[in-house]
Design goal:
Radius of gyration: 19 Å
Strand content: 15-25%
Number of domains: 2
CATH architecture of the largest domain: 3-Layer(aba) Sandwich
Strand order of the largest sheet: 2-1-3-5-6-4
Bound molecules: NADP nicotinamide-adenine-dinucleotide phosphate
Number of helices: 11
CATH superfamily of the largest domain: NAD(P)-binding Rossmann-like Domain
Length: 291
């Protein structure tokens, strides 16, 4: 599907965020739409925070079929949707919106995206200890994903006791009831020898601080060799965190697969077709200069 083949029937999908220039979703989703033979296009929309309500109404009026939501709108978009799934309600954030007869509906495919690679790992998640570094927005999707996997021993590690407490309290009314414990970084070392999955949800290790890691080499070496290290960061790849994990001999995942899988889940909602996941991964890796 080239731009010259767009017609009045071409369906428009997109992503709202601010800024949006660096989003990797448009090339990934457009490659997938083309492969599926869908008469559609996926467009980035820069929506400044004060314009959010107007933009959501405008997207509806313009007949947009659906859209992704990224920073800083994942939470603030929710009041403007007619319905949201129980999962996105529990996470407190929406990243995928689609048109229904009753208005916009929203869900959170970051949760699906996060657990997708883990579902293929041979682990008994019901007895697994998961240690999550960071207590921001992405940590919420990770917590929901771990509950979905059936994990019963979740530890949230942060640098502020108050923020950790607020995070835990925010789940009290949630039907997910995550079995959450908290600790500060100063106490992390004691958790590591019995950890099955260590997840970095902090931005530590992103450009320009690519040599930084949320854990030291000595801490990484405390993990069992059967443990998994998962970094939500997708650039650089690998991060220093994952390099240390590889040195320890651990299985690793980076944020690329989560990004691919959250996009694939969104595409399936919009098109009702099986997404071309391999092509989406290849397109993303090419964008990231990984191929
Ligand atoms: P966020 O809401 O800003 O949360 C960041 C968290 O990291 C906060 O808990 C913050 O701690 C902590 N943190 C930041 N700098 C730190 C430092 N120097 N030491 C210790 N903790 C630190 O961000 P987010 O939306 O959760 O995103 C976090 C990361 O996940 C980003 O790198 C993002 O690119 C990645 N991500 C990837 C995907 C994917 O599809 N692969 C999806 C979503 C997010 P305080 O609360 O104490 O400030």
């Amino acid at each position: 599907m080239t731009r010259s083949s767009f017609t009045g029937a071409t369906q428009v999908l997109g992503i709202i965020g601010y800024p949006i220039e660096h989003s990797l979703s448009p090339p990934m989703q457009n490659a997938a739409l083309e492969q599926l033979g869908v008469d559609g296009v996926y467009v980035p929309f820069a929506v400044e925070p004060p314009m959010l309500e107007t933009a959501i109404a405008g997207l509806w009026s313009l007949g947009i079929q659906g859209f992704n939501v990224t920073i800083p709108h994942k939470q603030t978009v929710m009041p403007y949707l007619a319905s949201v799934t129980e999962m996105s309600q529990a996470v407190g954030a929406v990243n995928t919106v689609w048109r229904t007869d009753h208005g916009w509906a929203g869900t959170n495919t970051d949760v699906t995206g996060f657990i997708a690679p883990l579902q293929h790992c041979d682990r008994d998640w019901s007895t697994a200890r998961v240690v999550i570094l960071g207590n921001g927005g992405a940590a919420r999707a990770v917590v929901a994903g771990c509950v979905t996997l059936g994990c019963s021993d979740l530890w949230l590690v942060g640098r502020s006791a108050d923020k950790l407490q607020t995070f835990v309290q925010s789940w009290q009314a949630s039907p997910l009831k995550p079995p959450l414990h908290t600790c500060l970084y100063s106490e992390l070392t004691t958790l590591l020898p019995d950890t099955t999955l260590l997840v970095n949800t902090t931005p530590i290790g992103m450009h320009p601080h690519v040599d930084a890691s949320p854990v030291t080499a000595q801490q990484m070496d405390l993990l069992p060799v059967s443990a998994i290290a998962y970094d939500l960061i997708y650039t650089p790849s690998p991060t220093q965190f994952l390099r240390l994990a590889v040195q320890r001999g651990l299985q690793t995942f980076d944020g690329t697969e989560m990004l691919v899988q959250q996009g694939a889940a969104a595409l399936q909602i919009w098109t009702h077709q099986k997404p071309p996941v391999d092509l989406m991964r290849q397109t993303l890796q090419a964008q990231l200069g990984l191929t």
